[in-house]
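<instruction>
Derive C-alpha cells from the sequence
<data>
Labelled lines for chain and fold
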Amino acid sequence: MKNVLLATAVVSFMGASSFSVSAEIAPVAFQDLSEVMVKFDSAKEFRKKALTYGRLPHRSELGRTFPTYVADENGKPKLETENEVSDTVVIARNPEPVSGAVFNEWLVPKDKWEATYGEIPEYSQFAPFKRLKTIKAIPITDNVLTLLGSEDGKTAVIAVEWNEQGMKVYKGGYLADGGYGIAPDEMAKTYEEVEP
C-alpha cells in the first residue's frame, strides 16, 4: 500500500504526461538501461517551483476510496488511480484544476511528504507548500527515445510503479531519477533548475 501511495504522489510531478497508452506497447523500465542511467551522472538538478497544496484527511474520509484524476489527451479528467485514505497520509493537490472543478489530488505518506516539503500540514484545509527536495532529470532526445524503444520517434512508454500499462513520455520532455516522465510544457511551467 505504501508503494502505491508513494507512486500516486509522484503524479503531481508529472503534470500532463499521458497515462493512456496502447496495450500492445510493452513499457520499458529505463532504470534497467545502463545507456540511459549513465546520463543521470551528469544530469541537471531541478526543483518544483509550483506550489503544492496539502491537508490532513477529514475523519469522515478515513477508510474511504480516494480517486486521483489526470488530464487525458483532450484535457478532460480521467480517473488514474484509487487508494484508501488513512491517518498516515497527506492529501496533496495541484493548484490548477485538471478541468473545470476537478483537481489532481493524490495521497502521500506522511514521512514522504515531510521529506519532500519539510513539514506536515496541521489542518484538514488545504495550505500551500513549496517543495524542498530536488530531482535529477535528463532530456528525452532522439537517442533516448531510441533506447526506450520508441515506435514513432516522438513518444515512448516507460514502466511506472502505479500503472501496469506504463506512462507515455514525449520528445522534448524529461526522465526523472524518481522513475517517471515530465511532459515538455509541464517541465517549463512547473520546474526550475537548481544552480550548483
